[in-house]
């Protein structure tokens, strides 16, 4: 029965995704102008020492999923602003680290 099979496959995906996220954490945040506090879309957020990077959305928000537990350094860059380095970002499994990154115009 194809319908039953697809239901089974979708259920397995949901279960597997749920299990996977229990081993990892999330880094989320917002990037803003340090003076005006206006959000900055298009900022590049990089996890130093990994291949992980993401660009902020139109609300200045970013979310990095499936981050193994550990201590990380993030680097945030966008044109017209000094590069911002955030050290000692501690990721714990099943938790979300929330950051507010204030950029300084150059």
Write up what this structure looks like.
The model has no long low-confidence stretch (mean pLDDT about 90). It contains 1 helix and 7 strands, in the order H-E-E-E-E-E-E-E. The chain has one helix at about 1-20; strands at about 25-35, 45, 55, 60-65, 70-75, 85-90, 95-105. The protein has about 110 residues and is an alpha+beta fold. The strands form 2 sheets. The protein has a 4-stranded antiparallel beta sheet with strand order 3-2-5-6, with no helix packed on it. Strands 4-1-7 form a 3-stranded mixed beta sheet, covered by helices on one side.
Topology:
Elements: H1 2-22, E1 25-33, E2 44-47, E3 53-55, E4 61-67, E5 70-77, E6 84-91, E7 96-103
Parallel strand pairs: 1-7
Antiparallel strand pairs: 1-4, 2-3, 2-5, 5-6
């Amino acid at each position: 029965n194809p319908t039953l099979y697809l239901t089974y496959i979708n259920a397995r995906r949901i279960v597997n995704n749920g299990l996977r996220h229990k081993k990892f954490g999330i880094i989320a945040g917002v990037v803003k102008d340090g003076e005006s506090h206006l959000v900055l879309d298009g900022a590049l957020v990089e996890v130093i020492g990994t291949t992980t990077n993401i660009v902020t959305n139109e609300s200045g928000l970013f979310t990095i999923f499936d981050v193994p537990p550990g201590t990380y350094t993030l680097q945030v860059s966008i044109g017209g602003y000094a590069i911002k380095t955030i050290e000692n970002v501690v990721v714990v499994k099943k938790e979300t680290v929330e950051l507010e990154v204030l950029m300084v115009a150059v």
